[in-house]
Amino acid sequence: MKEQVQHQTDVIIVGSGAAGLSLALSLANTCRVTVLSKGELREGSTLYAQGGIAAVFDKKNDSIESHVDDTLAAGAGLCDREAVHYTATNAKQCLKWLIEQGVPFDMEFDSKGRERFHLTREGGHSHRRILHAADATGKAVQSTLIERVQEHPNILLLEQYNAIDLITQGTSGHKVVHGLYVYNRRANRVETVTAKFVALATGGASKVYLYTSNPDVSSGDGIAMAWRAGCRVANMEFNQFHPTSLYHPELQNFLITEAMRGEGALLRRPDGTRFMPDFDDREELAPRDVVARAIDYEMKRLGANCVYLDISHKDKDFIIEHFPTIYAKCLSVGLDITKEPIPVVPAAHYTCGGVMTDFNGLTDISNLYAIGEVAYTGLHGANRMASNSLLECIVFAHAAAKDILAKIDTQPLPPELPEWDESQVNDSDEEVVITHNWHELRLFMWDYVGIVRSTKRLERALRRVELLQQEIQEYYSHFRVSNNLLELRNLVQVAELIIRSALARKESRGLHYTLDFPNSAETTEPTVLSSDAPKCQSDGTL
C-alpha cells in the first residue's frame, strides 16, 4: 500500500488556464488557494488562443447592446439573452483587471496623438471591439497570470496532477462537495484534497476527436467528473470545428488561419481540382461551418485523408510577408507553401456545451463551481462567436470569486474524507488495451459524430461507446490508475454525452448538422442531460 497523502485548503481549483488562474488571483488575498495542473502550469488551450478578447471600449461607435446582438446572432437562437447581457456588461471591467495584472494588449495613437488600445474586428462582430496582443493574446494572458500566481504566497501550485473524482455527501439534489481524489503523476500515487470549495476550470473536450486544434490536456475531465457526481450538462452536441488544420504527423494541432483564404488561397481535392464553388457562391470565403462541412463531405466521398489549401499561385514575397509564421512552421517539416499546397483537415476546436451553472459559476452541487470552457452558462448557444471564450473565462471567474468570498467565513470545514482504496487492484500489464480503445474512440467520433451527422451514424457510435465504457470500467476496476487511463475514462464519458445530445436534437442548428433533419426547427431549447451519479471505484460519496 502506497503512502496516503492528504492536502487541506480553502479552495481547490482544477485547471490552470485563464479561468482557473483568474479565480485563484481573485481569491488569494482572503483565503488559501490550491491550483491543480494536469501538466505544466502553462500548458492548456489559453496558451494557444490566437484571437483576442471582446469588450466595448469604443462607446462612440459601439455599444453593449451591439455586442449582445452579435452574440445572439452567432448563437443561432440558443443563447440565453440574460447570460449574454451579463457577460457583455461585465466585459470592460474584467479587461481592465487583466490590464492591471500586466497583460500587454496592443496600443495605437489616435488622430490627436493620444495613446489608446488597438481594437480589431473578427468574424461575427459588427464593430471593432477586440483587444489583442498581436496574434498571440492567449499566450500573453497565460504568461502574465502565471507570473502573478507564482508571486502570491497564498497560492499553492500542484503541477503534474490529474483530478480523478469529486468527493461528495448527500443525495441527488442535495449534494455538497468536500474535495476530490487526485493522481500525483510524478510520485505515481493517489492523494486526497479536502476543501471548502471546489472549482472546475479544466477546459473543453476536443481531444475526443481524431483531429483537434487543442493541446493534449483537453480531455473533458471536468465535464466527466461533474457528470459522475450528479451535475446536469447542456448542449454537448455543439462542438466547433476549425476548417483548416495542418495535416502532418510532425506538426499536430497547428492551425492555418482563415486569413489565408481571405488573401486568395484555394481549396483543392487531391487531384488538384477545386470544390468550394460546388458548395457555396462565396466559395473559399464562405463561413467557417460551411467550409468545414464541404471539406468533410469531400474527404468522406473520396476516402481521402485530407484536402489541400493552395496559395502557391501568389507571389513568394507576398506569401512570406503576410504569413511568416505559417511559412516558417511548414518549412520546418519540409513544406514550402510558396511552391506547394498545404495538406489540411478540419479540427475540433471548442466545446460550446458543458456543466450547467448559474451566473456565479455554481453547479447543481453545493460549493462546486465550473468556469470557462468546461461550463455551460448560456453564452454561446449553438455556435461560439470569436473572442467571447477568453472573455467568459474572466467574467465568470470574477463572479465565482465574489460568491465564494461571501461564503468563505461561514462555511464549515469538511469532514474527514475516506482514503483512496487500491487494495483490490494491481499494476496493469495490458496498456495496449488503453492505446487501442483510445484510437478507436477518436476515430469513430470523427467519422460518425463529427461535422456532418446522421441518425444512423449516431446510433452506430452510441453502440460503440457503450462497449468501450464496459471495457474501460472493467479495466479501471482491476488496475491502478494512470494518466492515459484517467483521460480515456473521461473522454469515453464525454463522448457518450455528445452522442446522446446529438440524437436528442431533431434539427440542424449552428454547429450541429444532421442529414436526417437538415432544417432548423421553428422553436428550440437547449439540450439538457441529467443523471444520478453512477457508482465508480473511488465511490466519491460519503
SSE diagram, text form:
Layout: E1 6-14, H1 18-27, E2 33-37, H2 45-48, E3 53-54, H3 64-74, H4 81-101, E4 107-109, E5 115-117, E6 119-120, E7 130-131, H5 137-151, E8 155-159, E9 161-169, E10 176-184, E11 189-200, H6 221-229, E12 233-234, E13 239-246, H7 259-262, E14 266-268, H8 288-302, E15 307-310, H9 316-322, H10 324-331, E16 342-351, E17 354-356, E18 368-370, E19 375-376, H11 389-407, H12 431-448, H13 455-478, H14 483-504, E20 528-529
Parallel strand pairs: 1-2, 1-11, 2-8, 11-18, 17-19
Antiparallel strand pairs: 3-7, 4-5, 6-7, 9-10, 10-11, 12-17, 12-20, 13-16, 14-15, 15-16
Helix pairs in contact: 1-5, 1-11, 3-4, 4-11, 6-14, 12-13, 12-14, 13-14
Characterise this structure:
With 542 residues, the protein is of the alpha/beta class. It folds into three domains: 7-237 and 352-406, FAD/NAD(P)-binding domain (3-Layer(bba) Sandwich); 243-347, Alpha-Beta Complex (Flavocytochrome C3, Chain A, domain 1), CATH 3.90.700; 431-518, Fumarate reductase/succinate dehydrogenase flavoprotein-like, C-terminal domain (Methane Monooxygenase Hydroxylase, Chain G, domain 1, Up-down Bundle), CATH 1.20.58.100. The protein has helices at residues 18-27, 45-48, 64-74, 81-101, 137-151, 221-229, 259-262, 288-302, 316-322, 324-331, 389-407, 431-448, 455-478, 483-504; strands at 6-14, 33-37, 53-54, 107-109, 115-117, 119-120, 130-131, 155-159, 161-169, 176-184, 189-200, 233-234, 239-246, 266-268, 307-310, 342-351, 354-356, 368-370, 375-376, 528-529. Helix 1 links the parallel strand 1 (6-14) and strand 2. Helix 1 runs parallel beside helix 5 and helix 1 (18-27) packs parallel to helix 11. The radius of gyration is 23 Å and the shape is globular. Residues 533-539 have low confidence and may be disordered.
